[in-house]
Structures are given as structure tokens and as C-alpha cells.
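Hi again,

Forgot to attach this to my earlier email, sorry! This is the prediction with manganese (II) ion bound. I've pasted everything inline since the attachment limit keeps bouncing my files.
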Amino acid sequence: MDGVLLPKSWNVDQILDDLDQHGFAIINDAYPIDYLHALSAECLSHLNQFRNAAIQNGVISNIRSDHILWLNEELNIAQQHIQYLNALSAHLNQAFFLGIQEAEAHFACYNAGEFYALHRDNPQGKNGRIISTVYYLHEEWQDDWGGQLRLQDKNDVWQIIHPRPNRIAIFQSDLLHEVIQAKHQRLSITAWLRSGSPIW
Ligand code: OGA
Ligand code: MN
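C-alpha cells for the complex follow:
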């Protein structure tokens, strides 16, 4: 997006190169720590509005057990993250001609025991999702707490990504991935960078 600079910790050349070579990229220490605190607080203060992600249009699936809240303009702190993702999208479009036009995003909360089984975010290439991003915003995470993002990269190598606080995982939406059962509350924003309106 015009006029929005990326945070210093985002090495765009590295991100573009990793996406090109492997289909995924990681940003560690994505934001100043005050931002993480503010976003955690915003997320936690809305937990009572989160809905069971497995229920869509009244239909219950057993593929996932997390809870989500779609972002709206009133979630001011979260919107700043979306602004940065929009700025990143401009770089992605310039480098790879992806035609990203917008972002759709939700908070996600995995309580202990919750998971998201193997899936793709754009299974039939029809929902417009091109790039998936997940920002982890719990205040603490230990690597033996489960909750890993397991991702088959574009070279068919399985990658394990721990949901460390202040980390962003970025990957092609067509790649197979899952969230291993978490042992502690795991908070995130999932955002999809996508071309115009989806054809459902
Ligand atoms: C998703 C997803 C991965 C993660 O929300 O579709 O796969 O690490 N999230 O939370
Ligand atoms: Mn996914």
C-alpha cells in the first residue's frame, strides 16, 4: 500500500527469495514488542466473541477445533498488521505478478487440545487465496507445547514451524499443511492475500 513502510525486521529480498525457492518464508521478531502486547490484549479482550471454526453455514466438520473471530475495522491494533501485509502484497505483486488485491483475516485461538488437520487453504484454486500468512501473538511459547505448523513446502519437504511469539509464517495457499494439537492457548491472526472476490 502506498506510503506504508515495512517494519525494519522484514527483509523483503529474503522473503521473496524464500517464497520463490521454497514456497514459504518466516519473519522472526516481526514487530516492536509493545505492538505484540497491544495486539494480544486486543485479541484476549474479544475472546467471548470467538466462534467455533468448524461450523460453517450450520455444517460441522471435524477437521479443526479452534475458535476464530473475523477482523473488522474496529479491531484497530489488528488492522495495523493488515496494513503491513498490504504493503508486502505490493512487493509480491511486483516480483511475481500475483495480482493480490486484498486481505481477509481472522484471529484464531487454539485452546489446549485443539488442532487443525491436514488441509490446503485454496484446495481447488477457486477462492482467490494466493498467499497465507499467520502471525503468532501469544506472549510466551515453548517448543515442547505442540501447536506446530507442519507444512509441505514446494519441493515436497515437510517443514516444522514453531508458533513462537512475534513470528510470521508466510506460505503459498495451495500447499498442504496442518496445526498439531496445542498444549497451551495459542493465539494468532491468519490472513490470506488474495485476488478479488472469491468464486465459491
Ligand atoms: C489456517 C492455518 C496455520 C497456523 O488458519 O488455515 O492453517 O499455524 N493456520 O495457525
Ligand atoms: Mn491453513
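The first strand starts at residue 24 and ends at 27. Residues 1-51+61-112 form a domain with the Jelly Rolls fold (CATH 2.60.120.620).

That should be everything now.

G.
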